[in-house]
Structure prediction request, 294 residues.
Amino acid sequence: MVIAGIVCAGLTITYAWSYLEVDMPTALLAYWSYNSSLQEVFLSAAILLAPASMLVAVAYLARQKDVQTSALAQALAVAGAASLVAALIQAKPWSYHFLPAIIFFNLSAVALLAAEKPRADKLTLRRIAFAILVAMAIAPTAFEAKRIFEGTSSRESQLAAVFRNNPGPNRTVFGFMPSPREVFPAVVAAGVEWATPFCCVYLIAAAARVDEAPAADQPKIKAAGLNQAEMAISAVRIKEPGVIVIATGIDMLGFGHRAFDYVAWLSAHTDFASTLAHYRETSPIGPFRIFVRK
Prediction:
């Protein structure tokens, strides 16, 4: 595990130095704006990790007494604990942050259950644990298959239809939003392309809440937010997307339940109004304002 970490760090330094020098420092200027309360994060962690933790405990109790726990089971448990720490440090309740910890703990349970003959009085419990592990492995795949065969959600389908019917000169779409959820699946379903190399204008959320940041960081946060906005607008001018999606509402990620208007903010800080003049607004889809190229 240590060797794998050293190799990963070496490859990152060798082939992706700009990630450490530019991307990470820039991202950290805004990542705090997506944080949730510790109570919400720990509650999410407890709910998501409860099944895996239970399985590890059952597998450990089902083993023969005075038998050495396998090195593989120990290593996987350590990896799970380290992944959990990494997820908690990020202070987000998002399920995929806890996914590595869940997987490593489940694999540790598998290693414990498969390593040796079980105690006779724990055989039924061990079989139940195996059945739960199998179900946990199959359920996500079955759920995704069901989604594929049944089609995307109604909102994603509506977005995809708009993208498909308004491809623009370059078959591209762009959105001013703090998260790619719902919009990106619709882009894929419509067979169009995203107009920029970055998924969303996440730095704008921090720029809008700059008063909450340490005073020393505020100028850098403002500059980063404006720079990302200018990059996005420049890409819109070049790619001429057929549709521009703009998120709305008080529940947008990163804004801390503050009311925020992308159009007003961009118009006040950039020349976005002249770019938007080439578009007409159509009916909204859920929390998204839709602008179609004229």
Summary: The two ends are 56 Å apart (CA to CA).
